[in-house]
């Protein structure tokens, strides 16, 4: 690990330690299953998405990387207790390929950007090491570990370490892998994600984010899908496309509120680890 990497990881350790000291000492939603769509997706994964474990997301194509990132963030909001910080650890290569995160885009998905701790590291080994350390902090809400491609450092052992850290703390970990190929791994679930076609809202307004997802692997059952879901940012839940469309048809005023992100008073818009 280079000097810059050490500085960033050391700063991350200090920030996570401060969050842990300020936490309420309770574990997050470990051991619980949280509904995804109250329908066929939940049925395929045993009644809901398991919290406090490792989940993996692979974009169907490079062009779907941004959608996969949005899906990972939406899952994090489902899995994380309200108001707890989220950590997103990104590879520099992923930033070059997929672009920077945009605060207004995060807000449009339902996240206060000030709640996010953003970390960028150069090599896969540093990212995985940081992911394990961060996932051990029970005061966090969820952790997204984003790697690009198929680095040698990511193997069954490293995935097992992420899984054990998640199980011990109760913090859900999402392994986001743009540009990667599906391979054997230790995640509880593995999803292939593509951007879906949205249904326009009344007055031809842009529709809610839509995702086409396929369950590639489930430790306790067979694969399944594909399904198309829309993300309801106000309710922090996914909805089947037909359900969301019918809800808006009955209540045209039920439009999602898309507001520009603004820093809270006295708080920075972004929180960086270093």
Q: Could you list some keywords that capture this structure?
A:
274 residues, alpha/beta, Rossmann fold, two-stranded antiparallel sheet, 8 helices, globular, Protein ImuA, P-loop_NTPase, ImuA
Describe this protein's structure.
It comes from Kaistia soli DSM 19436. This is Protein ImuA. With about 270 residues, this protein is α/β, with parallel strands linked by helices. The chain has one domain (about 5-255): Rossmann fold, CATH 3.40.50.300. Helices cover about 30% and strands about 25% of the residues. It has helices at about 5-20, 40-45, 65-80, 90-100, 105-110, 125-135, 155-170, 240-250, and strands spanning about 35, 50, 55-60, 85-90, 115-120, 140-145, 170-175, 190-195, 210-220, 225-230, 235-240, 270. The strands form 2 sheets. It has a 10-stranded mixed sheet, sandwiched between helices. It has a two-stranded antiparallel ribbon with strand order 1-2. The radius of gyration is 18 Å and the shape is globular. Residues about 1-5, about 245-260 and about 265-270 have low confidence and may be disordered.
Q: What is the number of helical segments per DSSP (H or I, 4+ residues)?
A: 8
What is the rounded distance between the termini? Answer: 15 Å
Summing up helix and strand content along with how strands pair, one would put the structural category as: alpha/beta
Strand content: 15-25%
Query: Given this structure, which CATH class is correct?
Result: Alpha Beta
Show unreliable segments: 1-7, 243-261, 264-269
Mean pLDDT: 81
| CATH architecture field | 3-Layer(aba) Sandwich
The main sheet orders its strands as: 11-10-9-8-3-7-6-4-5-12
Describe the oligomeric state of these chains in a short phrase: single chain
The coarse silhouette is: globular
Number of strands: 12
The biggest beta sheet is recorded as: 10 strands, mixed
Helix content: 25-40%
Gyration radius, in Å = 18 Å
Number of domains: 1
CATH superfamily: P-loop containing nucleotide triphosphate hydrolases
User: What's the helix-strand series?
Assistant: HEHEEHEHHEHEHEEEEEHE
CATH topology: Rossmann fold
Protein name: Protein ImuA
InterPro entries: ImuA, P-loop_NTPase
């Amino acid at each position: 690990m280079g000097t810059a990497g050490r500085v960033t990881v050391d700063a991350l350790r200090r920030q996570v330690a401060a969050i842990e000291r300020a936490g309420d000492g309770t574990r997050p939603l470990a051991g619980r299953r949280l509904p995804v769509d109250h329908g066929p997706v939940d049925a395929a994964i045993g009644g809901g998405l398991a919290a406090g474990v490792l989940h993996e997301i692979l974009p169907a194509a490079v062009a779907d990387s941004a959608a996969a990132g949005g899906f990972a963030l939406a899952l994090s909001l489902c899995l994380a207790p309200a108001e707890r910080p989220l950590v997103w650890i990104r590879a520099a290569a992923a930033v070059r390929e997929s672009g920077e995160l945009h605060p207004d885009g995060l807000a449009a998905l339902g996240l206060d950007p000030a709640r996010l701790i953003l970390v960028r590291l150069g090599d896969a080994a540093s990212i995985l090491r940081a992911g394990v350390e961060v996932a051990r902090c029970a005061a966090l809400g969820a952790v997204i570990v984003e790697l690009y491609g198929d680095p040698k450092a990511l193997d069954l052992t490293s995935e097992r370490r992420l899984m054990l850290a998640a199980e011990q703390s109760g913090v859900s970990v999402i392994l986001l892998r743009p540009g990667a190929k599906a391979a054997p791994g230790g995640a509880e679930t593995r999803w292939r994600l593509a951007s879906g076609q949205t249904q326009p809202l009344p007055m031809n307004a842009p529709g809610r984010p839509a995702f086409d997802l396929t369950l590639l692997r489930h430790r306790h059952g067979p694969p399944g899908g594909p399904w198309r879901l829309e993300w309801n940012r106000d309710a922090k839940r996914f909805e089947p496309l037909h359900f969301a469309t019918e809800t808006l048809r009955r209540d045209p005023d039920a439009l999602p509120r898309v507001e520009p992100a603004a820093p809270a008073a006295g708080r920075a818009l972004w929180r960086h680890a270093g």
